[in-house]
Amino acid sequence: MGLVVKEVMARHSPSIALGTAITTVVETLLRHKITGLPVVDAESRVVGFVSEQDCLRSLLVSSYHCEGSPKVDDVMHREPLTVSPEASVVDMAEMMVKQKPKVYPVVDESQRLVGLLLRSQVLTVLKDNRNQCD
């Protein structure tokens, strides 16, 4: 199985701009039924990653005390795990077994967002490949 990420990734992936309010991030996560999103700068370069858990923690504190307007910049992970469009799907499956992220931003050589690789996409490819074995 020689598939690469660009063959299975979601190309028109949602992302969040720096400075976005956490409530807007949550609306985007819920609308797209996804557990996390890349955070991008004005040039669409991936500069962070924000998850449902990051938002939950932030909203719990800010809504309990009704203070502040948290932004994605306050809660995002600043060193996101990204993947190349040329990466092997098998290698990504092995990485997903060892690490927690369910969503990987796919970036070009300039760190610009070109897509998202979801664990469900990798599972689908592996399942389809397994079905061909029988």
Automatic annotation (TrEMBL):
Q: Which UniProt keywords apply?
A: CBS domain
A Pfam family in this protein? CBS
Where do the CBS domain residues begin and end? 9-67, 76-134
Q: Which InterPro entries match?
A: CBS_bac (IPR044729), CBS_dom (IPR000644), CBS_dom_sf (IPR046342), Diverse_CBS-Domain (IPR051257)
SMART domains membership: CBS (SM00116)
- CDD domains on file: CBS_pair_bac (cd04629)
Q: Indicate yes or no for the key word Transmembrane helix.
A: no
Protein name as catalogued: CBS domain-containing protein
Q: Which organism is it from?
A: Alcanivorax quisquiliarum
